[in-house]
Amino acid sequence: EPEVTQTPSHQVTQMGQEVILRCVPISNHLYFYWYRQILGQKVEFLVSFYNNEISEKSEIFDDQFSVERPDGSNFTLKIRSTKLEDSAMYFCASSVQGPYEKLFFGSGTQLSVL
Amino acid sequence: QQPVQSPQAVILREGEDAVINCSSSKALYSVHWYRQKHGEAPVFLMILLKGGEQKGHEKISASFNEKKQQSSLYLTASQLSYSGTYFCGTEGGAQKLVFGQGTRLTINP
To answer: What is the pLDDT of residues B63-93, one digit of tens each?
Structure first.
C-alpha cells in the first residue's frame, strides 16, 4: 500500500528556534493535513490544505505556524519560534478527495523542544 | 466540536468482547474509526455515512444510529492484536476531521 513519508522521525530543538517538518503525501492525493499528538493525549487537528491554500485551521494553528507545498511532492509544516508546549508528535496525513474518506497518516515526527 | 468517547479505557482477556461508543450533540455527516498502536500512526478502520448503517470486517464492526449522533465500535472475540487506542472522528468543518479523546484497549492473554 502507498505510504505517507515524514522526515525527520525525531527533531530536537531549542526554544525559540525554527523547525521545518517535512512530509511526502501519496502521489495522487489532493488533500493534506497536519495533526499533532501530545504524549498520551488525543490526535488534534492543526490544518488542512487543498489546491495550494489552507482550507481550515484550528485555534492551535496561530501565526507561529505555516504550511507550504514548495514543489509537487513535499508538504511542510514550519514552526517559527518553538515553545516548550510545541513538544509533541506531529502527523502528516493525506487523502484523495477530502477528510470524509480514508486518511493515510505518516509515521510522525517527534518534536522535542528544550 | 469534538465527539465524546466512552469508556476511556478497557481491559479484556483474549476472546472477550468490547464496545466503544462515540457520541455528538449534533447530527453528523459521517463517523470515522481509527486504531493507533503505541508509538505508531493512526490506521483507518472504517467510515459510516448513513443513519442506521452497520459495517465491519473480520471481528471488528461498527454501527451508526438513525439520528446520526452516536456510533459504536464492536470488537468480538478480541485478539492480542486488537490492543491499542481507538479514536472516532467526525467533521469539525468542511475540511476538518476532529477526533475524540480516544479509548485505550488492553487485551491480556
So the answer is: 999 788 999 999 999 999 999 999 999 988 7
- The neighbour count for residue B93, using CB atoms within 10 Å, is 15
Sign of the dihedral defined by the CA atoms of residues A68, A85, B31, B93, in that order: negative
Whether the bond between B7 and the residue before it is cis, its omega within 30 degrees of 0, is yes
Q: CA–CA separation, B103 vs B95, rounded Å? A: 24
Residue B27 and residue A29: Cα distance in Å, rounded? 28
> Count of alpha carbons within 13 Å of A29, Cβ hemisphere only?
28
Name the residue in chain A with its Cα closest to that of B104. A40
- Three-class SS state of B80: helix
Q: Do A100 and B97 touch (CB under 8 A)?
A: yes
Sign of the C-alpha dihedral, residues B48, B53, B57, B60?
Answer: positive
- Mark yes or no for CB contact A42/B101 under 8 Å: yes
Structure confidence by residue, pLDDT tens digits, A13-32? 999 999 999 999 999 999 99
